[in-house]
User: Fold this.
Amino acid sequence: MVIDIAFWALGLVAVLSGAAVFYVDSMARATYALALSFVAVGLQVLFLQQNYVGVVTILMMVMEMAVMAVYMVMFMGMNPALMPMSMVHGNRTAVVVAVTTFLVLAAGILMVDWPARRGSPPADVTMALGESLMGPKMLVMAVVSPVMVATIVAGVVLAARRTRYDRFGDDLSRRPADDPQPGGVGR
Amino acid sequence: MTLEATLLIAAAIFSVGLYGAISQQVVVMVMMGLELMINAVILAAAGFWWFLAPDPSGQVLLMVVIAAMTLEMAMGFAVATLLHRERETDMTDSAADLAG
Assistant:
């Protein structure tokens, strides 16, 4: 009974703080609201006995929200905790689409005759996950890892201010470089 | 604590995220909407795992979802940085030519 109440309360916190992301009048508060929503969902995942996934979700999203706050200070050019903002477009359409989506999903959830649980959870869920990732599910890690490396490379290429192609053009062996913006020491 | 309750909460979070992804003009706020939607997927997948088939395969799927969320964040920040550098803006309306 207590677990049920706590689970529903966390769900309520997750939904309301998620809605607050788009209701509060500053991006800093929106970031904190999103972090709260993620923490609530992470705790719910812990209730569902997935200790590793729940803890990873909480730790990762708290750090991501910290990065996002720094990012906003960098690019918004204002104090994002104090500056009110309301920047939306197509608000009515978005509300209709969101409400319709919820009603369709809720109808499906309540009308489907869900099957009974098949099997029982392993004694140590985290160890079972680790053994699975390092054994029969190794292909998942082998695929995710290079995708992450590719993302790092793509992120750096997109975000870098200038690259070797800006300096040398198509001929990377050309000397000296034709720098559109002088760089290095003593510029 | 039932599967239906878990999925209903996930559906509500997903719908809120969908609203944000559609309605917001600032790129970072759109990313917040997308992350809320993935947050809902995490909760729903955890519910399916616990209430229907609690074997390690479901947890591996959750790890893939979390990895996808990480990649979305990284690429979103990189694109927003490029957009800000090239056009001095962080609004999606100023990057409408990227659609499609």
Remarks:
- Chain A touches chain B through 83 residues (CB under 8 Å).
